[in-house]
Amino acid sequence: MATRETVLFEKPGKHNTQATLEAARRRAVALGVKGLVVATSTGETALRAAEVFDGTDVQVVGVTLHAGLWKKYTAPDPTKVKQAEAKGVRFLTATHTLMGNVDSAIREKFGGLPPAELIAYTYYTFSQGMKVAVEVAVMAADAGLISDAEDIIALGGTEEGADTAIVLRPAYSTEFFALKVREVIAMPR
């Protein structure tokens, strides 16, 4: 049996980003994790991750909203992306595995809840950040930016920033149920 620290925030949101990143760094160093996948709309959270993980050998991957959502929400900020890339962050913009894909278009047009969104809403029972962390890890695996052969840390958040961090063994979307959440590092209560 192992005992681990889990950070539980009283409220979700971007004000938890720094504490989430610091907790993720502590756990990455303790476990020898080499990959960090972080959801980032503008590039700000990826840039902050690069700063917090500076001095480690952790590769940071920033996953943005897919381009179809940039008009509705926000697009990556080219300045922040360039700053993060200069610190070694690799970026991915791709179709969302659990929400924002063809299944979502079917739901919008014809109604009902497609299987991928059912999975997404199940992760929402933990937190929005939990769903996002799982989703960006699968997206990064599908893009070949991380391996499914070793544990990584994934971060997601509620609307902006990061308030959830997990250790997981990623999987490709075609093998989604091979994904294993190993530890919860931080999340809102």
What does this structure look like?
The protein has one domain: Pyruvate kinase, C-terminal domain (Pyruvate Kinase, Chain: A, domain 1, 3-Layer(aba) Sandwich), CATH 3.40.1380. 35% of the residues lie in helices and 20% in strands. The chain is built from six helices and seven strands, in the order βαβαβαβαααβββ. Strands 1-7-6-5-2-3-4 form a seven-stranded mixed sheet, with helices on both faces. Strand 3, helix 3 and strand 4 form a beta-alpha-beta unit. The longest helix is centred in the first third of the chain and has 15 residues. The two termini are 24 Å apart.
Provide the descriptors you would attach to this structure in a database record:
single chain, 189 residues, alpha/beta, Pyruvate Kinase, Chain: A, domain 1, 7-stranded mixed sheet, 6 helices, 7 strands, 35% helix, globular
